[in-house]
Design goal:
alpha+beta, 2 helices, 32% helix
Length: 99
């Protein structure tokens, strides 16, 4: 016995499953609650971001703006002390030696 399943119904199930998986892996918040707590949420936004939903369906993904790599240059100045020779392995060896 075969059962006819309309193509559209199958695709809706697949899309809903993907949305469920996506929503479980990232923090979600309803649009009304996001509106109330917007500034606090922006201050505490993690690397994964935040999914904003309306009536349980995701409508937007809020992610932090990527930091410029140039801002990292020199950020550890005066915080790291180099001890010893960083260009040496500490082992004596001869590159020209024959085995």
């Amino acid at each position: 016995m075969s059962v006819y399943v309309p193509r559209r119904a199958f695709l809706e199930v697949a899309i809903n499953y993907d949305q469920l998986y996506f929503m479980k892996s990232i923090n979600t918040i309803g649009a009304a609650k996001f509106k109330e707590q917007c500034l606090a949420l922006l201050d505490n936004l993690d690397k994964q971001g935040l999914v904003i939903t309306k009536h349980g369906r995701p409508v937007a993904l809020l992610t932090p703006y990527p930091k410029e790599p140039g801002a990292l240059i020199g950020s550890l100045r005066d915080k790291i002390a180099v001890r010893g020779d960083i260009l040496s392995t500490g082992l004596a060896w001869d590159a020209d030696a024959q085995p």
